[in-house]
Amino acid sequence: MSLITDLINLNLTDSTKKIIAEYIWIGGSGMDVRSKGRTLPGPVTDPSQLPKWNYDGSSTGQAPGTDSEVILYPQAIFKDPFRRGNNILVICDTYTPAGEPIPTNKRFNAAKIFSHPDVVAEVPWYGLEQEYTLLQKDVNWPLGWPLGGFPGPQGPYYCSAGADKAFGRDIVDAHYKACLYAGINISGINGEVMPGQWEFQVGPSVGIAAGDELWVARYILERITELAGVVLSFDPKPIPGDWNGAGAHTNYSTKTMRADGGFNVIKKAIEKLGLRHEEHISAYGEGNERRLTGRHETADIHTFSWGVANRGASVRVGRDTEKDGKGKDLCTSALSLVFRYFEDRRPASNMDPYVVTSMIAETTILWKP
């Protein structure tokens, strides 16, 4: 095993200029992150310098076997925390050989929205709070829970320390540092209310970059849990009963929201979100009805609401935002994701960040009710 470790950690720059690029894409389920590696002649710093590639879409549920080729278009580059050196991770989206985006390519439509002049002018900032649950392999039961049984009730686990309360911190911290190394704008981590459940935050990121960064952060977390022999779950309600679910609260602001009088802009944006509540809910993740029950810090899925400092509302506004009349540009807390201009608490942990971020921008900036 020591020889395998030595080989994994080989520094290629000692012997070759060649690098390894790991191409990453989203598979047919919308949550399965796929990847494969290829050798390139030298370091690359811009996705436009990378070749397109292809894969067998019939093996990912994205193409029939009779016409299985799907083309990968490189879109963003990150440093590879596993191979290190000049090696890179490449987030891609997916197209037919004729250049048409395939149905599961959610990035394509998001990029169109974020390139609209009205959206560009508003410089939309996002902070994404990704909750997830670590499960014991083979039994699919949360890490730290007794097999076939339950831990003590919720209360002592949120942001906790101790072997009887915090389960999986080595994975969480490894992921945190790997994301920083990769160049992801990860802004913090914390233990969640349900034991075995954690959260990381990405942002503030502008426009399409928020989706790119969250997908690569998810990929890195999948790789780390693979090494640790632990199963990663983005199920929005992994354990039925009196246990918190897992969400992906989405914090959002625009240039006009961050300016004087921005609180009025925020209220108008929230009003528009309420008018399209059902449409947003339908795009905010599968199984979300099991999570949005009106209990465990959620609003009921059938009713739109908003409030200041209210974690039981669909949309929450921070007290500082209400007090100051706008969002602040200064970082005050990693847990508040730098800015809490307003927080859409409805997205599930398994949401597609391309869909959610672009939909919020479309509704609040482009849509005219």
TrEMBL record:
Its EC number is 6.3.1.2. Pfam families: Gln-synt_C (PF00120). Signal peptide: none annotated. GO terms for molecular function: ATP binding; glutamine synthetase activity. It catalyses: L-glutamate + NH4(+) + ATP = L-glutamine + ADP + phosphate + H(+). PROSITE patterns: GLNA_1, GLNA_ATP, GS_BETA_GRASP, GS_CATALYTIC. Its main location: cytoplasm. One of its GO terms (cellular component) is cytoplasm. It is found in: Cytoplasm. One of its GO terms (biological process) is glutamine biosynthetic process. Residues 106-369 form the GS catalytic domain. Keywords: ATP-binding, Cytoplasm, Ligase, Nucleotide-binding. The keyword ATP-binding applies. Residues 19-99 form the GS beta-grasp domain. SUPFAM superfamilies: Glutamine synthetase, N-terminal domain, Glutamine synthetase/guanido kinase. It comes from the Eukaryota. InterPro entries: Gln_synt_N, Gln_synt_N_sf, Gln_synth/guanido_kin_cat_dom, Gln_synth_cat_dom, Gln_synth_gly_rich_site, Gln_synth_N_conserv_site, Glutamine_Synthetase. It is an enzyme of class 6 (ligase). Belongs to the glutamine synthetase family. This is Glutamine synthetase. It comes from Coptis chinensis.
